[in-house]
Specification:
The structure holds two protein chains of two kinds. Chain A is built from 16 helices and one strand. By secondary structure, chain A is an all-alpha fold. In chain A, helix 1 crosses helix 14 and helix 3 runs parallel beside helix 9. In chain A, about 50% of the residues are buried. The N terminus and C terminus of chain A are likely disordered. By secondary structure, chain B is mainly alpha-helical. Chain B is globular. Chain B is about 75% helix and about 0% strand. The chains are: A mainly alpha, B mainly alpha. Chains A and B meet through helix 1, helix 3, strand 1, helix 4 and helix 5 of A and helix 1, helix 2, strand 1, helix 3 and helix 5 of B. Strand 1 of chain A pairs parallel with strand 1 of chain B, so a sheet runs across the interface.
């Protein structure tokens, strides 16, 4: 089996780009790909930028001076920060457990953790309404008696956002944990460090780039969540309307300039996330060893059988 | 630019690579759980159940409450059936386009590196990173009523197709790219030296190696297309029987307080995701085994 290291990512592998002799077919394909991406992605994205500034800075100024839009931006940010915090703590914890410990059901848990990415956002919203809905939900009435409204309020929006972005940190942290191994952790233990000390002084520094990359992905996803939040938020003007919901409402209310300006801000955030993520990905500690990105911890026990 | 910056990517790459027997991993299966780690696992699983497992179970339970007959009626009633048909049809068509274009794009990115490769890499990641509602607006600006070149496809079935195409762009590319980069070029050179034409090399050497990755990427793009919602809200007009897709149908049911019907349609979507997860897993195992 070819050791799939170094080769994986964008960089040309030595020898891979030696297609010095290009045939006409190569150029046909190149032009085809450029045209496809131009019409599908580049031009439309450019037009959003242009539409946002169609009247100079008027539209951008208008949304930034509208208290409700500003509120929706702030709300989006706080919900995203809360979700990222929850998912980071949960993600790092569960990744450590999956990689470093053995327990019954590990394989199942590992598979289930990927589930949220495959579920339609609308279905996520519906699922949360069915359980936490104030009137008819399974737990909704109970939780409401404790004085907490989940659905049609901020807690539900945080839950929905957390749900859809749940696996992103885990998927980045697990392969890094596997790669760094546990020799250093064991060494720290032998010289008397306790669990917390080992975690904060050995494990966390070793996986920090994986965690950062996961956090950036998670943040970008959280800021942009639409479908799930739409279902659980009730979309109440000035209360539970996030930035993405604002884009929809502005557009439907014929405030196209406002919609494009808000969309432009969200696009900027997304592009920034892409750039930061690529920095985290190329970070020194991962540069050499990035590719072992498998979630295949749980495949380990199966190996002996396969060899037989 | 690194290849995968997938904001909502599914685990195509993550799972397939990684030599199965790295020394530090094969040495220990992990420690047995202690008090703290056991407690941590308990809290983690409890949170995961409250957030994900119980709510998803609630969908299945709610859908099955009325019995099989009610479930069947909910998903075969006129508008719902036509929404499912449109969604599945458009998703299948998009998957075919992605299988072809995604492979071509991956080939160009890996084998034909030229000055704009990094720009193309960046463009491919954009659909992952953009919020879906913004994706809808983005497409609307070129393919909507204010299109500078007069291509107005808003509120048509073509709009559904284009929106799916946009949001699923990265899947096949990102699945095929690493496999293509790892593929042994000596076999191609050997085949060429034995007199095989370019097309024969492509068909007999390159495609068989890529097939599992292409299939996995295709499955993921199908699943993503079927569950798409945000990008269609503004673009497709959500006209019942014409451009209404399954997710919009669910929203309509929720807003009409028909949670049981919404759950029935959601079960169909969940089943599709489940089939895709299993299929992708099997395909990726076959990739790993081939090594």
């Amino acid at each position: 089996m070819a050791e799939p290291s170094i080769i994986h990512k964008g960089r040309p592998r030595p020898g891979a780009a030696r297609a010095s002799k290009r045939s006409p077919g190569t150029y046909v394909l190149r032009v085809l790909v450029i045209a496809y991406l131009f019409f599908l992605v580049a031009w439309p994205v450019y037009l959003v930028g242009r539409n946002a500034f169609a009247r100079g800075l008027t539209d951008l100024g208008a949304i930034l001076s509208d208290p409700y839009t500003v509120y929706s931006l702030e709300l989006t940010l706080w919900i995203a920060v809360a979700s990222v915090a929850i998912n980071t703590v949960f993600g790092v914890g569960i990744s450590l457990l999956i990689v470093r410990f053995r327990f019954v059901g590990k394989r199942v848990l590992n598979a289930l953790l990927d589930l949220p990415l495959s579920v339609s956002p609308v279905v996520v919203g519906l699922a949360l309404v069915l359980v936490y809905g104030g009137r008819t939900g399974w737990f909704g009435p109970t939780v409401q008696r404790w004085g907490l409204t989940v659905i049609y309020d901020v807690p539900g929006m945080i839950l929905a956002t957390t749900f859809v972005s749940l696996p992103l940190v885990i998927r980045e942290v697990i392969p890094v944990l596997q790669e760094v191994g546990d020799e250093q952790e064991q060494a720290a233990r032998t010289i008397g460090a306790n669990g917390l000390q080992t975690f904060f002084r050995v494990t966390l520094p070793a996986i920090r780039w994986g965690v950062s990359y996961g956090v950036v992905l998670c943040l970008a996803r959280s800021l942009g969540e639409f479908g799930a939040v739409k279902v659980v938020s009730g979309n109440i003007y000035g209360e539970t309307r996030t930035a993405t919901l604002t884009v929809e409402n502005e557009y439907l209310n014929f405030d196209k300039g406002g919609a494009y300006a808000t969309a432009f801000l969200l696009t900027l955030v997304a592009v920034a996330a892409l750039l930061v993520a690529s920095l985290a990905r190329n970070a020194p500690s991962r540069a050499r060893s990035a590719p072992s990105r498998g979630r295949d911890v749980t495949e380990q026990p199966r190996q002996p059988e396969e060899r037989r | 630019m690194t290849a995968q910056t997938a904001v909502s990517a599914r685990p195509v790459r993550s799972r397939r690579s990684g030599p199965p027997s790295r020394p530090q991993r094969s040495r220990s299966d992990g420690h047995p759980l202690g008090l703290t780690s056991g407690l941590g696992l308990g809290v983690g699983v409890l949170w995961f159940s409250l957030l994900v497992l119980i709510p998803l179970a609630a969908i299945v339970v709610t859908a099955s409450q009325g019995g099989w007959h009610a479930f069947w009626q909910a998903i075969t009633n006129g508008e719902t059936a036509s929404a499912i048909e449109l969604t599945a049809g458009a998703a299948a068509l998009v998957t075919i386009v992605n299988v072809i274009m995604g492979t071509v794009i991956a080939w160009v990115l890996v084998r034909d590196r030229f000055f704009a490769t990094r720009v193309l890499e960046f463009l491919i990641d954009i659909p992952f990173a953009l919020p879906t509602i913004v994706a809808g607006l983005v497409l609307l600006s070129l393919y909507g009523p204010r299109s500078p070149v007069g291509w107005n496809i808003a509120n048509t079935r073509t709009a559904v197709f284009v929106a799916f195409l946009f949001v699923t762009l990265p899947f096949v590319v990102r699945a095929v790219q690493p496999v293509l980069a790892e593929q042994d070029r000596e076999a191609e050179e050997a085949a060429a030296s034995l007199g095989a034409g370019r097309f024969t090399v492509f068909r007999r050497i390159i495609v068989p190696g890529l097939a599992p990755a292409i299939a996995a990427g295709g499955a993921l793009s199908f699943a993503r297309a079927v569950s798409e919602y945000g990008s269609l809200v503004l673009l497709s007009g959500n006209l019942p029987n014409r451009t209404e897709v399954t997710s919009v149908r669910i929203i309509t049911f929720i807003e009409g307080d028909r949670l049981d019907n919404a759950a029935a349609v959601a079960v169909v979507l969940l089943l599709i995701s489940l089939v895709v997860i299993v299929a992708v897993d099997l395909l990726q195992r076959s990739v790993v085994r081939r090594g």
